[in-house]
Amino acid sequence: MTDRVFHADSYARQCDTVVTRSEPGIVELERTVFYPTGGGQPGDRGVLILEDGSRLTVIDTIKGEDEAIVHRIADDAPVPAPGTRLQAEIDWERRHTLMRYHTCLHLLCAVVDAPVTGGRMAEDKAHLDFDIDMEKLVAADIEAALNALIARDQPVETGAISDAELDANPGLVKTMSVQPPRGQGSVRTIRVGDIDYQPCGGTHLRRTGEIGTASVVRIRSEGKRNKRVTIVLGD
């Protein structure tokens, strides 16, 4: 299992580590700051810096087998052997943007009182799908409520809940399409002040005020049970 530095500190930009497995196009590390694709959040990009100063570009990060994290490099790039020491460094500007969007989507969960049927974020926008009647989604009202919550500058805290506690409180799981991983004894949680509390494995800001301004740019139907609200954040 890869040690997930980003779970303890979403603001960690780099770490010293060791290669545990490698093959053309793939590098696995003992510990990493790279978040793997999951929960609607894209995997991190960045570089692996070897002791001789050479750099390998990480083009994507995904989940592997047995809780490993796979750093994808070009298929024709030189592959560092297991045991190689190096420094893993993420593209921080991109990651921070994704953290802003991910934290804002938690606020959107609180603003729209309906089950979440899906969601995704990118570097320029993000969306959630809700099982709700279309007429109940008013862009101006959602936008005003979002920005009011952002302005409250509430703390965002990481915690954990036991599998048994989660099973006893199924309402904490707000995303119908994705269930939190069980079997490890506990599940990671994110609490946004008194606004939102739910299981989540993603990376987040320390406070909501860091999100900036949010705009609702589109609301449209994606099917009978999927009404999509798309947001864009200011620079």
TrEMBL record:
GO terms for biological process: alanyl-tRNA aminoacylation. Keywords: Hydrolase, Metal-binding, Zinc. Its main location: cytoplasm. PROSITE patterns: AA_TRNA_LIGASE_II_ALA. It is found in: Cytoplasm. The keyword Translocase does not apply. Its cofactor is Zn(2+). Residues 1-235 form the Alanyl-transfer RNA synthetases family profile domain. This is Alanine--tRNA ligase. It comes from Parazoarcus communis. One of its GO terms (cellular component) is cytoplasm. InterPro entries: Ala-tRNA-synth_IIc_core, Ala-tRNA-synth_IIc_N, Alanyl-tRNA_Editing_Enzymes, Thr/Ala-tRNA-synth_IIc_edit, Transl_B-barrel_sf, tRNA_SAD. GO terms for molecular function: alanine-tRNA ligase activity; aminoacyl-tRNA deacylase activity; ATP binding; metal ion binding; nucleic acid binding. SUPFAM superfamilies: ThrRS/AlaRS common domain, Translation proteins.
